[in-house]
Amino acid sequence: MSEAAVGRETQAIRLPLVEIFETVEGEGTQAGYPTVFVRLFGCPLRCVWCDTPYSYAPAKAEFTMTIEQIVLRVASFKAARVCLTGGEPLMYHEHSAALLRALSELPRLVDVHVETSGAIDLTSFLKDVRSSKVRYIVDYKLKESGETAKMIAANFTVLRPQDELKFVIASDADFDEAMAVLDRFHPLCTVLVSPVFGAMEPEHLVDRLLKEGRPHVKLNLQIHKVIWDPNQRGV
Ligand SMILES: Nc1nc2[nH]cc(C(=O)O)c2c(=O)[nH]1
Ligand code: SF4
Ligand SMILES: [Mg+2]
């Protein structure tokens, strides 16, 4: 296929979206930095404690955009960081990869990170999206989520130092399982433990973490839920 044909193909793709907004990143190693959020519609999982059920059926996509339109919208904000989230933003496979490549080509951006569920094979993305700006923040869905069976084990062996592995913890049993997962995969990336909002007291999670003696596991609190109403969208 010629370059022009590839360009036309990319222009023809329309991705379903929920929202695009600028705020401060509420989670992970980049928490606090101004960040543009691109929330794609759709998710193949149904986590019990999901905080964004408006991002998949029976809700509907709010609008669709071409990759070019998404990039132009992102470029209209001032942030130097982008978070591609959902839903599951990698469920559109080669189209998701094309969006990541296009975003990473925006000169002002220094970081393009993806919030993904652990249920989409990352190996093809690592191969097809070459920019060093692109990083993956991968959830390992623990038992209380109800979605552990969908975890792709290979994802947890390919994470690089710039990536992040996040365990969202709803119970003591979830915490124990997370520690066992670490002992199984020994990931090279930053490891985060995050309490399920309203289900696990942050203080209890810190207590478990300190007793466990895991000096390189980091507590992750969702600061956007502290700053704004936890149910508010677009923040
Ligand atoms: N401020 C803010 N930070 C976030 N980090 C991850 C988010 C998400 O919904 O995936 C999110 C979000 O929705 N808002
Ligand atoms: S993967 Fe994320 S968006 Fe999908 S159901 Fe689970 S928490 Fe919700
Ligand atoms: Mg999310």
What brief labels describe this structure?
binds iron/sulfur cluster; single chain; globular; TIM Barrel; 9 strands; binds ligand 2KA; nine-stranded mixed sheet; binds magnesium ion; 235 residues; alpha/beta
Query: Which structural class is indicated by helix and strand composition?
Result: alpha/beta
Over the alpha carbons, how many angstroms does the gyration radius reach?
Answer: 17 Å
How would you sum up the global shape? Answer: globular
Q: CATH homologous superfamily? A: Aldolase class I
Q: What percentage of residues falls in helices of 4 or more residues?
A: 25-40%
Binding site for Mg(2+): 52
Binding site for [4Fe-4S] cluster: 43, 47, 50
Subunit structure: Homodimer.
Cofactor: [4Fe-4S] cluster; S-adenosyl-L-methionine; Mg(2+)
Short structural description:
The chain has helices at 3-12, 67-75, 93-104, 123-128, 172-185, 202-212, 223-227, and strands at 14-24, 34-40, 63-66, 81-85, 111-116, 134-140, 164-169, 190-195, 217-219. The chain has 235 residues and is an alpha/beta fold.
Structural commentary:
One of its GO terms (molecular function) is magnesium ion binding. It comes from Ferroacidibacillus organovorans. By secondary structure, the protein is α/β, with parallel strands linked by helices. It has one domain: TIM Barrel (Alpha-Beta Barrel). Helices cover 29% and strands 23% of the residues. The protein is built from seven helices and nine strands; from the N terminus they run H-E-E-E-H-E-H-E-H-E-E-H-E-H-E-H. Strands 3-1-2-4-5-6-7-8-9 form a nine-stranded mixed sheet. It is globular, with a radius of gyration of 17 Å. The mean pLDDT is 96. The structure holds the ligand Nc1nc2[nH]cc(C(=O)O)c2c(=O)[nH]1, iron/sulfur cluster and magnesium ion (MG). The ligand Nc1nc2[nH]cc(C(=O)O)c2c(=O)[nH]1 binds next to strand 1 and strand 4.
